[in-house]
Amino acid sequence: VKIHTPYGSPSATVTLGDYGDTKIAFIPRHGDGHIIPPHKIPFQANIWALMKLGVKRIVASSAVGSLRMDYKPGDFVLTDQFIDRTRKRSDTFYEGGQICHISAADPLCPELRQVIGDYADKLKLKNHKEGTYVCIEGPRFSTRAESNMFRQWGCDIIGMTMYPEVILAREAQLCYVSVAMVTDYDVWADKPVSAAEVMEVMEKNSENFKRLIMGAIPEIPAERHCDCGTALTGAIY
What we know:
Number of helices: 5
Distance between the termini: 34 Å
Number of strands: 9
CATH class: Alpha Beta
CATH architecture: 3-Layer(aba) Sandwich
CATH topology: Rossmann fold
Radius of gyration: 17 Å
Number of domains: 1
Oligomer: single chain
Largest sheet: 7 strands, mixed
């Protein structure tokens, strides 16, 4: 379906479907054919479109570089924190009239993280139950100095797409989980990052990702037991 939003068009038309008893909406954030670079993704339009369709939970995938030796290519990471290093992205729905100071203390849904982490264990997929994701502007990769700085900050993985998606979802009072797939070690490991290598690991691990997500969906409770649905309480002035 095509959705019109106050923020323009989403990355692509929204695909709707049913998986068992669960209704699903899918937006490829990079557009059909992966043609939208990370710094040009219409994050506001994407989240608004999902909210307008009645979506309550978002399961987001991402390819990330590792900033730790023990977070290996092929591993999954259930991110629990982020550091924003983007520069040009609109990251709120409240641009005027009302002011929203949303809490970002715990920005990702603990319930979704638990369900997906448990199912990853059931499938015996190597996964990490927490991780700090540093989101860079892109589309370039990091310098060695930047990569080492992020390691000193305590970041675990690095990517280009989770922010502001995660915080817009929180403003929309949607549950949001980031299932990150480690594709490579970032440049701190003395080997420059290659886009071709990233795609190769993604292709090899895509079947595991599908098994994980499609298997976990039926395990998600019908009712939410987190605070994501009340994130705006006390946040708007």
